[in-house]
Design a protein that fits this description.
homodimer, 6-stranded parallel beta sheet, 4-stranded parallel beta sheet, 13 helices, disordered C terminus
Chain lengths: 339, 339
DNA sequence: TTGAAAGCGATACCAC
DNA sequence: GTGGTATCGCTTTCAA
């Protein structure tokens, strides 16, 4: 069943080396021989054995996708990333190997490196504290996806969280809000602080004093946006608008508001972050900051390939533009003024 | 950086063969030697090179996930499947390799087989017409996920579409509906006809005559449920309830109904299929038939592993139970009768 | 322009 | 119980 290079060579009465050279574009092969080889290759259905090639060449042509996240967070988000990554990987003739565990531990990571399972890794969501150190130690190229990394020497592709939050907050202020709740997810690290900075800058620009009671932190591992939202509602002077951590939590918040007899956006405006399909399907539809997840996925593979090809390359850090998408959940269309 | 079996053998003053045997549980190794080897293994951080192992053993310990679908259909659905598959694969110490293309063509499939990229394939969504034939020819084990296959000799894991549609239709009838629209996706093949059979059986059981104008086919590649839904509404005698092809299309339908000033479920009831997270997040929340996607993903990997281990195994075909989940989109709570 | 042979890192057969 | 060696399929150096 399996056709090897030896089958081709016997079939043509040539040596294995000549066949190999013909296939790998060496110059010292007569064009006639090359043609015969290529022909035989098609005729017999030869495809070089991946394992043998990997062993000989020392590269696997595989990229690992390390999705270090509880499955509940595996929303639409990851699908967009994966499809972008898959597209780019295909162009580079790389396979994508999936590593999805709640927690990929250090030992596992070492194994992936030492066993040479992949040529490089794309880290999606929070990498382990020491994961990056291990990868650096093992000289395994990697790119962090979706968030900035404070660590020196780390390449990443991140959305412009600061600007996104800034635009979103400005929009809410324009809609007349001056008490804007902010759902923070502390474990998001720089993502969180960037967004928070954007939020605060918008307040400063509008000369709205910052009120810390409007900031509520979601719990670690919390996937439901309702508790944080309700906590905001229960404060003595609740917000009239809320920025949720992401679209999924925003959808939960809308649900909660609805359950409590509140109209969105009349009684409370709610905005999300990410720009997933669900933001079009909530009722009211959701205002959100859209990340170019597909393109980010592509870019991160491209950057990773550069690192794989040239391991002396300095880190590449890209922040990609986001887009404010205004929908019903924050937009008071039934307006009274002339402004 | 990379530690090989030779490093271990030199370190201990043993031969490579002894080290290998110690690691692979051969009996003819003294327990003392075995202990020393295992110890050195940990000390030096040895992990066997995957490519070398694959080449020698003729297996890759990789399972391919062939996701043959336009990206738009890559919803939450695939995430549940993947996480189940990943869980099972991990237990079998298999890696998952992702093949996501709109269309994986025959040539590509042949390459995957001949190059021995994987030990087996999980086919998600519609496999190519001749894909299965190629795989059989190449003796590549595979399992079809999510749908029955009429082809003899093909293993699959499928939801109980017939029973799901039966229960769902009965529920709608109980809610007082006797004009129930049915959105069909012809390209779904047996999935479609099984559900349709369930739908019709429920009508028969309730002695409701079947009206073909209530069946509307969605277009190939159509992801938006609105057009089909609107087509149903525009008939001279429109339905009072609609069964959508899946939750995503149902969500679109709800949106459409809303846009046309119709209340769901008062003016029209809408039900989905699949039981994805979105069914909890629409407004009203969506009645649906929930598939155990995670467990189905697990099972399909388990079955695939059986085929990989024993290639004489007859096909395994499993139909997994589904669950009717009644939510707001079909449930008239504000009722008037005592029944 | 072609071919022989070494070697990538592992496993497994067969001597000893 | 241990070690030498062939082998998996490929690429690449070197010799012819």
């Amino acid at each position: 069943m399996a056709v090897t290079i030896e089958d081709i060579s016997k079939h043509l009465g040539l040596s294995k080396s000549t066949v190999s050279k013909a296939l790998n574009g060496y110059a010292d092969v007569s064009s006639e021989t090359r043609a015969r080889v290529i022909n035989a290759t098609k005729e017999l259905g030869y495809h070089p054995n991946r394992a043998a090639r990997s062993l000989r060449l020392g590269r696997t042509n595989k990229i690992g996708l390390l999705i270090n996240s509880p499955i509940q967070f595996l929303s639409d988000y990851i699908n967009h990333v994966m499809s972008g990554a898959a597209l780019a990987a295909e162009r580079f003739e790389q396979n994508l190997t999936l590593y999805t565990k709640e927690v990929v531990d250090a030992e596992e990571l070492r194994r992936i490196c030492r066993a040479r399972e992949v040529d490089g890794l794309l880290l999606i969501f929070d990498p382990l504290q020491d994961a990056k150190n291990i990868l650096v130690e093992e000289q395994m190229p990697f790119v962090v996806f979706g968030r900035r990394s404070a660590q020196a020497g780390v390449s990443f592709v991140s959305p412009d969280n600061y600007f996104g939050a800034l635009m979103l907050t400005k929009h809410l202020i324009e809609q007349g809000h001056d008490r804007i709740g902010f759902m923070a997810r502390p474990q998001l690290g720089l993502t969180n602080s960037d967004r928070f900075a954007g939020y605060q800058q918008a307040l400063v620009d509008a000369e709205i004093p910052f009120d810390p009671t409007l900031v509520v932190e979601t719990q670690v591992g919390q996937r439901d946006g309702s508790p944080a939202f309700l906590q905001l509602l229960r404060t003595s002077n609740p917000p009239t608008a809320v920025i949720a951590t992401n679209d999924l939590m925003a959808a939960d918040a809308i649900q909660s508001a609805h359950d409590h007899g509140l109209d969105v956006p009349m009684d409370i405006a709610i905005a999300g972050f990410d720009g997933l399909k669900i933001s079009e399907q909530t009722r009211p539809t959701l205002t959100t900051v859209q990340q170019p997840l597909g393109r980010m996925g592509q870019r991160s593979i491209e950057i990773l390939m550069q690192h794989i090809t040239d391991n002396t390359l300095p880190p590449i850090r890209e922040t990609m533009p986001v887009e404010l998408i205004i929908r019903e959940s924050t937009f008071l269309k039934i307006e009274n003024d002339s402004n």
